[in-house]
Design goal:
Belongs to the ArsC family. By secondary structure, the protein is α+β, with helices and mostly antiparallel strands. The chain is built from five helices and four strands; from the N terminus they run E-H-E-H-H-H-E-E-H. The protein has one domain: Glutaredoxin, CATH 3.40.30. Helix 1 links the parallel strand 1 and strand 2.
């Protein structure tokens, strides 16, 4: 299991605390320092069953500068969104937990983190 976190994020810290309480074995990836490649983002999206705009933090300053709210959300624009996430990792929703069964969840709630633990 791997968890992508921003240590400054309270949701990330809560997810880590829950994983620790449950004795889970996991690896931490500080994705702002160890930025995921476009291929890694594609792989996580496949595991999540989501599109890039579904995991984009559109309220971030970078998102506003890029005008992301105006970008199309369709198959033709998918690569552009993924490139933006790789170039601006602050835009990636957090925490993302990749479960041992090959799936992933956005672990913003206790229920989502427990779901990843059960897989």
């Amino acid at each position: 299991m791997e968890i992508w976190i921003n240590p400054a994020c309270s949701k990330c810290r809560s997810a880590i605390d829950l994983l620790d309480e449950e004795g889970a074995s996991y690896t931490v990836r500080r994705y702002l320092d160890d930025v995921p490649s476009e291929d890694e983002i594609r792989a996580v999206l496949e595991r999540l069953g989501l599109e890039p705009w579904d995991i984009t933090r559109t309220q971030e300053a970078d998102a506003k500068e890029l005008g992301l709210k105006e970008w199309p959300r369709d198959a033709k624009a998918r690569g552009r969104w993924i490139a933006a996430l790789a170039a601006h990792p602050k835009l990636i929703q957090r925490p993302i937990i990749t479960a041992d069964d090959g799936t992933a969840v956005v672990g913003r709630t206790e229920e989502a983190v427990r779901d990843a633990l059960s897989r």
